[in-house]
Amino acid sequence: MDLQLTGASAWELFCKVKETGPLIQCITNFVSMDIMANMLLAAGASPAMAHSREEAAEFVRLASAVLINVGTLSPEWTDSMRATATAARELGKPWVLDPVGAGATTFRTQTILSLVDLKPTLIRGNASEVMAVAGGVGTVRGVDSTASAVEALSLGKDLARRVGCVVAISGATDLVTDGHRVVACRNGTPLLTKVTATGCAVTALAAAFIACAPHDPLTATAHALAVFGLAAELAAREARGPASLRVGLLDALYSVKQSQVCENVLLNEANDT
Amino acid sequence: MDLQLTGASAWELFCKVKETGPLIQCITNFVSMDIMANMLLAAGASPAMAHSREEAAEFVRLASAVLINVGTLSPEWTDSMRATATAARELGKPWVLDPVGAGATTFRTQTILSLVDLKPTLIRGNASEVMAVAGGVGTVRGVDSTASAVEALSLGKDLARRVGCVVAISGATDLVTDGHRVVACRNGTPLLTKVTATGCAVTALAAAFIACAPHDPLTATAHALAVFGLAAELAAREARGPASLRVGLLDALYSVKQSQVCENVLLNEANDT
Amino acid sequence: MDLQLTGASAWELFCKVKETGPLIQCITNFVSMDIMANMLLAAGASPAMAHSREEAAEFVRLASAVLINVGTLSPEWTDSMRATATAARELGKPWVLDPVGAGATTFRTQTILSLVDLKPTLIRGNASEVMAVAGGVGTVRGVDSTASAVEALSLGKDLARRVGCVVAISGATDLVTDGHRVVACRNGTPLLTKVTATGCAVTALAAAFIACAPHDPLTATAHALAVFGLAAELAAREARGPASLRVGLLDALYSVKQSQVCENVLLNEANDT
């Protein structure tokens, strides 16, 4: 069966996000909080940042999906992350993991692996991070990747099958896989790499799309990446640098029209990658 | 006696903020820190973010007013919040409470109620939050409200009388009350709801206005809301979405002219609401 | 021997930052994280925010330089700051200290002094902060300075000689000294004082420049301040207020051209100041 990967299907799901306004509970790093909350709002979702041991797991009851990002990790937060992920699973709610900097330090890698054991719906990272999570030889340099998405795909597919989740690997072309099928997303602009936490924010956007299509996280993730990348393309036309790109990106997510999405989304199956 | 609620009175107090540059100590959530500090600076006040047990209460000596916002709450911060509020009271300095997410979780609601016991000068929240603080049946969905300001007014007035404070309830029309009189503020733009932490930031702005008129927190709060809402209206004229609205809002707070304030502030007593 | 303080030498070092993309590990306050990460990216460096006890010192191995900023200080962070500074020294990597609010509270001042003992490569603060660090009579009002850079220079020179570091004092004219020579930087715009954390961010930029010229932190710091100030000047030409200045500043750091740097950098030795 072919996957629905058109601009029309992306627009349809995006409209569902705007109409239902899913509440996305975010436990995320300090750098990303502002852009993540603003991106979710611009796209029509509703962000809630609640991270403490005392309430994170209780908060899940109110949420449609959960985003966990380990960026500025500390032990005080890891307990909450695990409790929240566990609560999400028990309540049957999707949860998404952004394994920032996997492989950089022992503490970080071990925390991430313990979260992977709690079976996220989606793991989204750059090639090095995905390789480190999969147990491969990912070379990490801080939070940037030194490998390409294609290099990480084989390990990413293994990881997806083993965990039973979707894995998205960011790059010039993003690759999304459930371990069997692979979707390539070619929307985006290189200038995005000069704006901090855009990767963190788009992972949260994927959580919002998945909340509106929990039966098909592969397609939902691909659609989220495409809509985000397209908004960045629209913003890049007038941007004078990374800061105006960021402003334009959020404005475009808020105001992008049906025709722009339908005509410019660049998604396709790429099972032979 | 009629309250002074004109554009001229708003401008007069705004000028006092710009001239004296009150230092506002903010213990606030991680999402709001950037926009709150920038909004205070744009308006002519001076922000200081100091939250730790070891110095927050000592820092109050330097401040003209204190803002406490419980957004990304954790136990490590609640002790500081209480110590700082207590110190502000003892020093006779105004302090303002933003009860973000009141009613969402047990931990959050209990922390907020313990802060209310320390008698803030102003409590500012959305309708659901005010109803939850007042002990009513506020329905909370994350940090958004599902009730209107008018619905919360009766409970808000009770709360104001019981605590001896001003209560401001945000909405399409903001309502501000000391338990006896009610002021309605109609400045603003709906697009503000798509920018995170604007509510947090305007509560800090209210603290700055109160610092310059500590004898009349009801009028000071109304003036702060009006100037903020008017700046948002000016920004909305040219905004292409929520991110450019945010940029324009801060620019307008910095550059708004006397005639614009005098002619466009929309404040009135609304005791029969 | 004359110092190289031309626009051409600033451009040369700036190009080295862009070409090598040094990884700057930042342990910094919550308010500054967004603008600091975005400024480093715009300038071609690579930011990594990693602060926890469990990994900060291990992370130093990956970094080219370290930035420590005590803005929103808490005891949980001070141990990491000291461990990271110690690790940087042992590995022979430059580290830079931003003593935000030195003198404001006992806890803050003592923490800063314990970090100074670990011999930073650069200390950068406003006049009051530098005077407080040097043990003088700096008058602090929150995080703003009430003294001028020239007033703090004598104590700053003493501090630089005693620690064996470079000291940069911000002001209308920035002064940079190694205790023997003094460089004045006149680039910048007063509107910068209305944008939060620009001082924090430029200290991180200085760390990136020092990472590319570790043998000469005096000149590297001066060049960083000049390039930053020049980008702010370019942005100020079109800014409508502090928020658009911030956008334009980051855009300009990304896109500023060789001729603009070569012709407009305002650096000179000022040993008789």
Alpha carbon gap, first and last residue of chain A:
19 Å
Q: Please, what is the average pLDDT of chain A?
A: 94
Architecture of chain A in CATH?
3-Layer(aba) Sandwich
List low-confidence stretches of chain A.
Answer: none
CATH homologous superfamily (4th level) name of chain A: Ribokinase
Number of helices of chain A: 11
Largest beta sheet of chain A, briefly?
9 strands, mixed
Broad structural category of chain A: alpha/beta
Beta content of chain A comes to: 15-25%
Say what oligomer this is.
Answer: homotrimer
Radius of gyration of chain A: 17 Å
Q: How many structural units, i.e. domains of chain A?
A: 1
Task: Give the spatial strand order of the biggest sheet of chain A.
Answer: 2-1-3-4-5-8-9-10-11
> What is the 3D form of chain A?
globular
What's the SSE pattern of chain A? HEHEHEHEHEHEEHEEEHHHHE
Looking at the structure, the CATH topology of chain A is: UDP-N-acetylmuramoyl-L-alanine:D-glutamate ligase
Total strands of chain A: 11
